[in-house]
Design brief:
Shape: globular
Number of helices: 20
Distance between the termini: 76 Å
Largest sheet: none
Mean pLDDT: 84
Number of strands: 0
Helix content: over 70%
Length: about 550
Amino acid sequence: MSTGTTMHTAATSMTDAAPLMAFFLVVTTTLLLCLLFGADSEGIDDLYVAGRSGRPWRNALAMTGDTITILLLLSCTGLVSVAGYDGTALTVCTIGTLVVLMVLARPLRNTGRYTLGDTLAARFDDRWVRMTAAAVCVIVCVPLAVVQLTAAGGATAAMLGLSGTASAQLCTVFIGGMMVCAAALTGMRGNTMLQVVKTFTVFACMGLLAVLLLRSTGWSPARLVSEAIDGNADPAGYFTPGQLYGRDLAGRLNLISVQVTVVLGTAVVPHMIMRVKTAEHGGAARRSALIATGMVSVFAALAVMLGLGAAARSAAVPPGHFDLQSSSALLSLVRDLVAGPAGDLLTALVVSAVFLTSLTVVAALALSAAAALVHDLYVSALRRGAVPPAAEVKAMRWATPVLGTVAVLLSVLAQSWNIQFLAQFAVAVSASAVLPSLVYALFWKGCTRAGLLWTMYAGLACCVVLQAFGPTVSGAPGALFESADFAWFPLATTGLVTVPVGFAVGWIVSVRTARSRRPDDAVRYAAVAARSLLDRPEEARVP
């Protein structure tokens, strides 16, 4: 072999290893950040709400990072690519999530100390309220963590050039181990800084891809749209509703149900509630949500643009290869836009963005679930607050890695399954049980303790039944049990039905149990309503 050939082979090997080298560089940096901020997370306020030191811009960056999950990062491009109108509608509805959170931000920040259970207990200080809130939080967080880890493991393996279920499982275990370290060592203060780094990385990655894409089309958005339409399998219907779920009534209801569930459910998932409570005061929380709304709007615009670019180059990857857990659209676009060493470096940037996205979101979910079990269930409900802060911090240090390990094991087992139903179920529970309970506790004077509890019971039970007997579990291509058919509910996502049920049951039970109100219920509601309007730091202290 000649010297030139040897040098060429060595150079090729080095460029092929660039994504892997960048991946381990990001891993090393993340570990150092975890250790650095771990020393500042010994206090209970630091652990749960980062010492309530979140200034609007920093908190907005972290809030944006919490909103951009691994599924959102990977799926938006593919959805827009294969289902132009439907994919764009689902991508843009993410903005609505921050709009809902902006409405709730100030009262959420000023009511309760750390968790959903604290917020509801400010209105009804009852152990059953706290225990139910803790159960709902765990039921939402654990499935979401499993979905995030499973998608991240498969995507990371594909981007590193690895194939097979075993490789995806190995990447899942590695990312999960990092997540356990990040959640257990840093708490919310460290997670905030990691989220800020992740947000900058994601926007740098997507912004660079968008610039390269526009350059390839002669800086003409009109040409990009035209090429996307021509590259789609159904050019005439690309920008008409129905490519994702069908054009009949059931298909349209499916699309509306997904949008309703995503907008309402994602806004109040437990880690977003804890994120809001890290703000300095109510006014800062609202401004953070407003700034984050603008940032997520930019992300949605970039995702739509990259999705159009993937559609224009659909010949490189079969349309059926795109799915909610696949990075194929984004990765294929990267390889199509830039070849050679530059392409390897760009792939390395995408790998880093995917890794940081999965790590930060799953760590936040693990922290939220552990907080529900330790703070709401153990400390507040079972021990009635008779636990020293140092002991509570110690319990959190143990609970977080235990929950994280459970999520990792479930993710490894589920690596070869179609687990879209888990994400849909978890967000539907958030929209149908968490959101109605928050609205009633914060804004409705007529809500009773029984009404609040039955809001959560009904929303959760309805989601379990309808999701179990829906097309994502059986009776449809891509369902969890493809060979079985026991589905009778027609919608893939249940929010269109379960959200009204949660609100309706809570209202009916509250009206029927109005005579059971306790003497201090009116006083508690007045205090909650007054705190909800406060903006200044010195006024926004919460019990």
